[in-house]
Every structure is written in C-alpha cells, then in structure tokens.
Design brief:
It is built from 1 helix and 7 strands, in the order H-E-E-E-E-E-E-E. It has about 130 residues and is an alpha+beta fold. The strands form 2 sheets. The chain has a 5-stranded antiparallel beta sheet, with no helix packed on it. The protein has a two-stranded antiparallel sheet with strand order 2-3. It starts with a helix and ends with a strand.
Length: about 130
C-alpha cells in the first residue's frame, strides 16, 4: 500500500509540474506572437516657415539643404560619432551645407536660424531647390 501511495504522489507531482510549465510556456508564447503596438509620431514642424530667405546660393560652394531624417538628427562638434552633441535637428529644418569630411561620411552644416555650426552624418540632408 505504501508503494502505491508513493507512486501516486510522484505521478501527481509530475502532473502538477507539467501543468505549471505548460501554462507558463503558453502565456510566454502568446506574448511573443502579438504584433507590437503601432508607433505614433509627433507632428513635426506643424508651422511651415517661409524658407525663401534661406535658399540663397553662395559663392563659397555652400548650399541650402533640408533635413530628411525622420527622427532627431544630431549635430556634433567634430566629424565623428564621439563628437560632443551641439544641437538636434528635425525633419524639414533648413541648414546650409558648408562641406564634407575627407572620408565622405559627414557633412559640415550651419543652422542660420539657431546660429549653430557642426557636423551631421552624410545622407540625412537633401539639397533645397
């Protein structure tokens, strides 16, 4: 009789453990199979400013450009990702491109509206028409 009780106890213990592990696994897999929440973006530059003053071409080769990066574009004090952050730019903000780094990975910019100068990663600006 004692052997039957021991066997039943072990069987019920394993069954309980199996139900717990199965339930936790089910909940974990349910959370993994859900689609992530749809991202929401704040309105960027709701006021469209007149950019005609900033679109003047200069004799030194600099040219006006607009930020096309969807997030905040970081302006650094040197052409390296380790450079100190000087400012952050948003979509459609107007800048003046002064030049490009030797390796072509960075563009030197001036932000006339803020009086800021620095470097941004190449490919985040589009020449203004």
């Amino acid at each position: 009789m004692r052997i039957v009780q021991t066997a039943l106890g072990i069987l019920l213990g394993l069954l309980t453990l199996g139900v717990i592990v199965g339930g936790v696994s089910y909940l974990f897999l349910q959370n993994l199979s859900r689609s992530p929440a749809k991202p929401s973006f704040a309105a960027v530059n709701p006021e469209k400013k007149d950019k005609s003053q900033a679109l003047q071409l200069s004799d030194d080769g600099s040219y006006p450009a607009l930020v096309v990066y969807q997030g905040e574009l970081v302006v650094r004090d040197s052409p390296a990702s380790s450079g100190k952050v000087v400012d952050k730019l948003v979509l459609d903000e107007t800048v003046v491109v002064e030049g490009t780094s030797e390796d072509g990975r960075w563009q030197q910019v001036r932000v006339p509206a803020k009086g800021v100068e620095g470097w941004v990663g190449n490919g985040n600006l589009k020449r203004a028409q």
